[in-house]
Design brief:
alpha/beta, Rossmann fold, 3 domains, 5-stranded parallel β-sheet, elongated
Length: 315
């Protein structure tokens, strides 16, 4: 799995996946065209999510690349990426829709100035013109888009479980009811990717609505392929040393275990510095690209860092 998609091939330069891909191989091949390293299990989950269609729920530790699945899927299909970033205190209005009160007040003042405030035109205050569409509603209104959008509900476990209940209802029929306007239905269901770091348990009913896939930290072989694919001009020897070092580092008792994004950041930093083989001074000077907490840095530096480099050299 990749943790970057910024340097993937542009959607205009490649053939998009059809709305209903023909095979798992077609999905994995399309992702490979974008230099996105996946495995058959995830490619199967994406294939089924598109064919059935059903939302895809991805859980795993932070940094394993869950969010990137939605990004690369949007690139692969040519659909818009619509992202709802969840956080504590997120309410339904911020996720679905709200009314533009400033515009409504200006409209009232205009009607009053025109002497029209009493002729029934105040009903226009709750028309689509004044509706602020948030990500969940945007995903239902595809308009003339050639491909369905990809709705990313990112880190849903950060939000309150009220969002679980609303999503369950929305995903049942891919519709949202705005009392003042009516029910808005999707002409074509969006591709839905929901991610969770599992800091809380999601509603069982929501899980049943989705296809579920757990993403582990990658194996050595898979992470090596990711580094080779995502870091331009990296030598094979350096890529192997970096991958082996990170694999060994993940076995340490750290506050925050480095994910794939950190591996790629570190590899990019070392390549930028012209490092051909990682020595102690190189690793110590660039450790901030890989380790993000002072306590973890203190834990790793010194003899432990030398031991990790020795382990990487032996791999």
């Amino acid at each position: 799995m990749n943790a970057r998609n910024s340097d993937a091939a542009s959607p205009e330069a490649v053939t998009h996946l059809p709305p209903l891909p023909d095979s798992i191989e077609q999905v994995s091949g399309r992702l490979a065209d974008l230099r996105y390293v996946t495995d058959r299990a995830l490619a199967t989950a994406i294939f089924l999510a598109m064919r059935l269609p059903k939302p895809l729920l991805l859980e795993g530790e932070a940094g394993v690349g869950k969010t990137e699945v939605a990004k690369v899927l949007a690139t692969a299909t040519g659909g818009r990426l619509i992202r709802l970033q969840c956080y504590e205190g997120l309410d339904i209005n911020q996720a679905v829709y709200e009314w533009n009160y400033s515009r409504q007040m200006l409209h009232i003042r205009l009607l009053e100035a025109q002497g029209s405030a009493r002729d029934g035109r105040l009903e226009d205050l709750f028309s689509p013109e004044f509706l602020v569409r948030r990500p969940l509603l945007q995903a239902l209104e595809t308009g003339d888009d050639a491909s369905p959008p990809v709705l990313l509900v990112d880190e849903i476990d950060r939000a309150d479980d009220e969002l679980d209940a609303f999503l369950l209802e929305m995903l049942a029929d891919y519709q949202v009811t705005v009392p003042e306007i009516g029910t808005i239905r999707a002409d074509r269901p969006p591709h839905v990717v929901i991610t969770s770091n599992r800091t809380r348990e999601l509603h069982d009913a929501l899980k049943r609505r989705c296809l579920y896939h757990w993403i582990e930290y990658p194996t050595f072989e898979k992470e090596l392929r990711i580094v080779a694919a995502r870091v331009p001009n990296i030598a094979d020897t350096l890529a192997r040393q970096i991958t082996a070092f990170v694999q060994a580092l993940r076995q340490e008792e750290l506050y925050k275990v480095p994910g794939i994004a950190e591996t790629l950041d570190w590899a990019g930093a070392l390549v930028e510095l012209g490092v051909r083989s990682v020595g102690y001074d190189d690793a110590d000077a660039t450790l901030g690209a890989l380790v993000k907490h002072q306590e973890d840095m203190a834990h790793v530096r010194g003899q432990r860092l030398k031991n990790l480099l020795d382990t990487a050299a032996e791999s």
